Fold this sequence. Notes:
Elements: H1 3-16, H2 18-55, E1 60-65, H3 76-81, H4 88-96, E2 101-116, E3 119-128, H5 132-135, E4 140-143, H6 148-152, E5 157-160, H7 162-169, E6 178-181, E7 184-192, E8 207-211, H8 212-218, E9 226-231, H9 237-248, E10 257-261, H10 262-305, H11 307-315, H12 320-353, H13 363-389, H14 393-398
Parallel strand pairs: 3-8, 5-7
Antiparallel strand pairs: 1-9, 1-10, 2-3, 2-6, 2-9, 4-7, 5-8, 6-7
Helix pairs in contact: 1-12, 2-10, 2-12, 2-13, 10-12, 10-13, 12-13
Amino acid sequence: MEISEILKLAFIALRANKSRSFLTTLGIIIGVASVILLISIGTGLQVFITSQFESLGSNTIYVLPGKVDLKASSGFAAAVLNVSKFDLTDIDRLEKSEGAIKRVTPAMAGTGTISYKGETITVEVAGVWPIYFNITNFHISQGRLFNKNDEDKSSKVAVFGSKPVNDLFKKENPIGKIITINDIQYKLIGVLESKGGGGLGANIDNHVFIPYSTSTRLYNKTNPYAIYVEALSQQKVSEAIKQTERILLKRLKKDDFTILEQKELLSTINQFLGVITLALGGIASISLLVGGIGIMNIMLVSVTERIREIGLRKAMGATENIILLQFLIEAISLSLIGGIIGIILGFLGSVVLGSFIKTAVSWWSVLLAFFVSSAVGVIFGVFPAQRAAKLNPIDALRYE
Length: 400
């Protein structure tokens, strides 16, 4: 018997039970679509975070207090508990050093309660030098940034990220409005363009910035919590790190600070997101297993219903291999049809979901889903096919 005839018989058997065939493939359809959709969410998140870090400039270096181990479970959280031993003399030495360092700014950070006309929100209020916005590649969308004159005079002015502006002012023009930060009045002079992500994984859109000299009075501290260093170029980052370390070690110990670069931060975050993406894909793959069991169950039912047909075909000369191949083709066909429909639905679902959150369908997720759906048909179709092939033709013909 030719393979084309075996294929024809297999598809005739599938068409004879359309409803059952569709319900059998439903598990595979849901499984494949879920794998592609969930992996696209994880991949989209990686693409989004990568773009956010790149928008901050690939030659930015962060200097944090204490020892921060990115691979440890505590990660950045451990840095928050560290006591800063930096002072402005460190910033001065870094600024005046010649070599790979282009610009430097200290950073002060703390939680601030911001109020306007009875509305109150709590956000992170950061004190920085005006050069911070150049280092991190942030731009103004309304008003202006504070300048050196504001820094020198410790002016009570503030630049808002997009989120606190939306929370407090709704559709009202915020520029020039007087707000209170921790019960002290400030003038809102500018709003930053929305970026979504930011330094050390923080969402800059949810920050409020004030001059560094003003923040020292607000928090009653003089030591910067962190230092931002900009290298002359991306190629000079390694040299800038060594230069920064060499200068800081003149006054501090090695355990007093940690130097991190964008590439290292991004690599760590992407590793974490990669694990999450694989976990999401693994969870979705469970439905493929359930779908495979469904295929095996239906094929076993099909073998039982067609015992007399199998006996007749074997009596007419059909070999075990032909019977095995026919039932195996039926199982694989169910799985492949479900896989193709699942891939289409998963892609369409990702496009629709992309209107709300960042998604990205990766080619490897499509190939993985197609391969797994094919494998499901083979693995779960073998046992029913073998059972059909090994039936004794005489016993099969007598079966009622």
